[in-house]
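Key result, reporting period 2: structure in, sequence out.
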C-alpha cells in the first residue's frame, strides 16, 4: 500500500508540473496584460513595473523562474493587482473559509444524498422512491449559480430566515452551503440508489436475513459497504469540485474565500493570482482522488494495491 501511495504521489507531482506549464503559457499568450488600463501608463513607468516583476525577461526565463519558485520554495509569487501582498498570503487567509464552505456543502450532500438513496432503494417503486428521485432530478438540473439567487430571494429576502451575504455566523453559512451542496446531494442520491439496488438482491443479503439478523444491521453491515462504492468513487472529484464550484457561490454570497480572488484575478489579468488558485485546486483534486483509492480497500476487501 505504501509503495502504491508513493507512486501516486510522484505521479501527482508530475501532473501538477504539467498543469503549471500549460496554464503558464496559456495565460501569458492570451491578449492583454496585468497592467493594461483604459488610460495607458507612460512607457517609462510601464518598463519599470515590468522590470520589477521580471516581465521584461524572455518568456522561457520567466517560466523557469516561476516553476522553480513553486516547486522548490512553494512561492506562488506576488500579486500584480495588490503589489504589497503575495499570493501565498491570499491563499492562507481565504482557503480556510473556502475549505469550511466545501466541508459544510459536502456534509449536506452526503447526509441528504445517502439518506434519500437508501430510502429509495429499500422502498423501490413506492412513493418514497419516486419522490426522492424526482427531487434528485430537480437538484441535478439546477446549477449552483441559479440555486444561490433563488435561496437568497426566498429564504433571505422574503422569509428573512437567513442573511444573504457574509460568513461571520452560523446563520450566514446555511444558504451558501446548501446552494453548493444540493447539486451533489442529488447525484449522490442517484448513485446510492443504484449501488444499493445491485446489492440488495445478492445471495449474502438473503443469507443474512435468513439467519435472523435485524434489518437495520443487514443494511449497515452488509448493504452499505458494497452499495456505497459508486458514491466513494464520486466523492473524490466531488470534494475537489466543491472547492472549485465555490467560486460562483462565494461571489454571490460575498464570502471572503479564495474563490472570489480567483474570479477577480481573471478579470484583472492577475497572472500569479490565477496561477496560484489553479495550482491549489489541482493539488486538492489529485489528493482527494488518492484518498478515494485508499478508502476502496476498506470498503471492499477484494481490492488490493500491490
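The corresponding designed sequence is given below.
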Amino acid at each position: 500500500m505504501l509503495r502504491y501511495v508513493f507512486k501516486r504521489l510522484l505521479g501527482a507531482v508530475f501532473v501538477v508540473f504539467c498543469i503549471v506549464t500549460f496554464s503558464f503559457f496559456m495565460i501569458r499568450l492570451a491578449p492583454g496584460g496585468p497592467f493594461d488600463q483604459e488610460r495607458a501608463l507612460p512607457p517609462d513607468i510601464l518598463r519599470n513595473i515590468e522590470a520589477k516583476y521580471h516581465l521584461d525577461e524572455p518568456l522561457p526565463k520567466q517560466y523557469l523562474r516561476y516553476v522553480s519558485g513553486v516547486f522548490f520554495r512553494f512561492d506562488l509569487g506576488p500579486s500584480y493587482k495588490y503589489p504589497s501582498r503575495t499570493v501565498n498570503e491570499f491563499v492562507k487567509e481565504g482557503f480556510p473559509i473556502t475549505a469550511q464552505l466545501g466541508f459544510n456543502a459536502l456534509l449536506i450532500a452526503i447526509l441528504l444524498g445517502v439518506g434519500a438513496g437508501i430510502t429509495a432503494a429499500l422502498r423501490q417503486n413506492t412513493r418514497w422512491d419516486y419522490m426522492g428521485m424526482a427531487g434528485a432530478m430537480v437538484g441535478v438540473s439546477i446549477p449552483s449559480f441559479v440555486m444561490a439567487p433563488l435561496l437568497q430571494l426566498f429564504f433571505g429576502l422574503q422569509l428573512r430566515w437567513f442573511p444573504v451575504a457574509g460568513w461571520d455566523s452560523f446563520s450566514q453559512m446555511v444558504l451558501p452551503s446548501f446552494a453548493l451542496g444540493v447539486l451533489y446531494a442529488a447525484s449522490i442520491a442517484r448513485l446510492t440508489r443504484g449501488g444499493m439496488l445491485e446489492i440488495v438482491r445478492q445471495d449474502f443479503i438473503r443469507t443474512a436475513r435468513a439467519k435472523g439478523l435485524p434489518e437495520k444491521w443487514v443494511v449497515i453491515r452488509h448493504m452499505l459497504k458494497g452499495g456505497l462504492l459508486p458514491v466513494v468513487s464520486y466523492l473524490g472529484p466531488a470534494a475537489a469540485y466543491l472547492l472549485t464550484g465555490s467560486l460562483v457561490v462565494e461571489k454571490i454570497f460575498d464570502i471572503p474565500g479564495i474563490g472570489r480572488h480567483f474570479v477577480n484575478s481573471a478579470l484583472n489579468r492577475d497572472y500569479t493570482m490565477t496561477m496560484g488558485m489553479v495550482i491549489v485546486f489541482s493539488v486538492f483534486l489529485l489528493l482527494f482522488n488518492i484518498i478515494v483509492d485508499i478508502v476502496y480497500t476498506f470498503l471492499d476487501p477484494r481490492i488490493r494495491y500491490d
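The longest helix spans residues 87-122. The domain at 95-257+287-299 is CATH 1.10.3720.10 (MetI-like fold). This case is discussed further under Risks and Mitigation.
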